[in-house]
Amino acid sequence: MMKNFLLPIIFILISCSGKEKESILLSPETWHWRSEDKTEQKAIEAQKHLPEKALEENSEFRLLDLEKLIDKSPILKTEGFGNENEESRFIVGDIIILSANEKLSYLNLLPKTTEDNSYIIHLIIQDLKDNSFQVAKQWVIELDNSDSNTLAEFYEKNKIEIAKIFKNEHLTLLNDKISFNSYDSIKDIHLKYDYGNTEQREITGINIFNKNQKLSNIQTSKKTLCPECDSVIIYKGDYLGSISLANNKKLLILGLLEHVSLSPSALHVRFVRL
Question: What PROSITE patterns would the database entry show (predicted)?
């Protein structure tokens, strides 16, 4: 009977002894390190999940199939190089929109027009108040060293770094629905071009009208025509449709064709607030 009574007491003493040893081994400095490790781990986990959630919820609004958007425009379609099936072909990139509040933020995979064994991705942040933009980050991806074949795969591998940029720029990730409006649904929009004095008839500015009302003007002189173009010659353009944001803002999607010698035209995409 006494033996049965002593067993629980012995068990409690052993448990307390183990905890006491652990408390002796863990100095205040160790407690501080463990606390920091847990906080850092939680921050990393949060950074991993926020961008992923935003991308999955709105993946249907990624502008992936740019060639099909071009096919709606008679102006741009005539510039494509045809194949035996008379289908237009352009050198196109890829775009994923990550944020669309006061500022529009998107990843832009540029169309590859050179023989270099690399391609370029930009993270572009555009102020929707005046359509001005900044290139927040540029990545040069070597084809030989890359296992990311799509922009979505690139984002998956770099979303923690992108989340840090968003934090520094005070941006919030996309959490509102975006709707796409087709080319045919905005027939009242028309564009008037300003040309430079070059043989290629380089576009130096685009005036956007809704019927007879002027809505916007974008120019190369103010570096607003094409974020990544620099010295690239833009010789043709048309709208590809528009997107409507949850805050009632509407953005026109412009398709701008780069002059490329002896090859199909390369398409650059530009968003302009209407």
Answer: PROKAR_LIPOPROTEIN (PS51257)
Is residue 120 assigned to a domain?
Answer: yes
In the chain, the DSSP E strands lie at 81-82, 88-89, 94-100, 103-109, 118-127, 133-142, 179-181, 189-195, 203-210, 213-219, 234-244, 250-258, 266-273
Domain assignment of residue 198, yes or no: yes
Nearest Cα neighbor of 230 from 192, 193, 199, 202 is 202
Amino acid, single-letter form, for residue 102 = E
Which tens digit of pLDDT belongs to each residue from 206-230?
999 988 888 888 887 766 788 777 7
pLDDT digits (tens, 9 = 90+) for 1-13: 444 444 444 444 4
Whether 8 is in a domain gets the answer no
Residue pointed to by tokens 């590809």: 240
Domain residue limits at 114? 66-74+89-273
Residue 100 contacts residue 176 (beta carbons within 8 Å) = yes
Q: How many domains does the chain have?
A: 1
CB atoms within 10 A of CB 217: 15
